[in-house]
Amino acid sequence: MFVKRTPEGSLVIGAPAKVNLFLEILGRRPDGFHNLHSLFQAVSLFDRLTFAPLPDPGLRLTVTGAAPELFGPSNTVVKAYEAVQQFRKFEFGLAVNLEKNIPIGGGLGGGSADAAATVLACNLLLDNKLTNDDMRTIGAQVGSDVPFFFSCGQAIVTGRGEIVEESQFPTDYWLVLITPPLAISTAASYAGLNMPLTEMREPSSLHGCQSVAEFINSLRLTGNDFERRHLETYAVLGKIRDVLIDRGARLVRMSGSGSTMFGIFDTAPEWASEREFQQESWQVNLARPIVLPRIEVNLNGGRPWRSQRSGLL
After folding, report:
1. Any idea which residues carry the catalytic annotation?
2. Per the domain annotation, does 187 fall within a domain?
3. How far does CA 26 lie from the centroid of its chain?
4. 93 and 200 belong to one structural domain
């Protein structure tokens, strides 16, 4: 997370999207969840959240640039605030403005990132009374992907998503993220797997990844277990995949349970802003992998995300 503290006492937090460079579903557990094995990578596409403390408990949320479904108790910001309150009672409230830039229902983890930002904001306003483990525990109550956003920004994620092992694979490449006007339910995607309660399969492993070329070659031996089914169900995903391949992507993959498809490129493609994508109503974002500082707080009111690897911001 990238944090700015304003002179007025508010916090501005940049919450990044993530992509799944691979995603394997190893099996269904007796508790109904699935064990996964995935490589998460934070990327330079951010939601921007502003948190202003209020004298009385309660949450006042406004959302810009988003669909109506982001208002109400199902919003992950609301859930995260309530989860922190249950873990450690505090007396102040929060006025939160969420500037939504990460596509909704695209498999990019925007809701989880927003929840993590809310937990972090509460902790900063509590003078860091929560440990990193506390924040991960609280985040996991909101969503399986939330604990990842308290990591360095790249990690092998296992369990149902709550086990995060930081990694150091190459990051010197560009990504083009293309999201069609199609929101795919994560719960429905898992239900569609129809996995029996059997022994878990063995996860893949990545070897010889000192260079980007070696890394991509290793990634080609993995995949996304949701991708084949979704390509058969949603023709637009195949169309996007073909566009990325035709434009020279070294690897094309779906993120999470979709609907975002992404391509990996050596350099920033100039065609990513072409009008043909606007005519298709596709949301196209050019991004770079980023490594997140534990907490980067700018106390002097300057640029909020001043990091060597914060990409396009």
Report:
1. 18, 145
2. yes
3. 21
4. no
Task: Let me know if residue 313 belongs to a domain.
Answer: no
**Entry field: residues in the chain:** 313
Q: Which residues are annotated as a binding site?
A: 103-113
Provide the annotated binding site for ATP. 103-113
For 56-100, how does the pLDDT look when each residue is reduced to its tens digit (9 = 90+)? 989 999 999 866 567 677 899 999 999 999 999 888 899 999 999
Residues of the chain with pLDDT under 50: 296-313
Kindly tell me the burial class for residue 225, based on how many C-beta atoms sit within 10 Å of its own C-beta (0-12, 13-18, 19 or more). Answer: buried
Residue 17, classed as helix, strand or coil, is: strand
Could you give the dihedral angle defined by the CA atoms of residues 165, 169, 172 and 176, in that order, rounded to the nearest 10 degrees? -60
How would you label 37-54 residue by residue, b for 16+ Cβ within 10 Å and e otherwise? Answer: bbbbbbbbbbbbbbbbbe
Q: Are residues 255 and 222 in the same domain?
A: yes
Whole-structure pTM over 0.85, yes or no? yes
Domain, as residue range, for 93: 2-167+290-298
> Is 35 part of any domain?
yes
What is the structure's pLDDT at 299? 39
Predicted local confidence at residue 88, as pLDDT:
92
Which of left, alpha, beta for 159 (phi over 0: left; psi -120 to 50: alpha)? left
Number of domains in the chain: 2
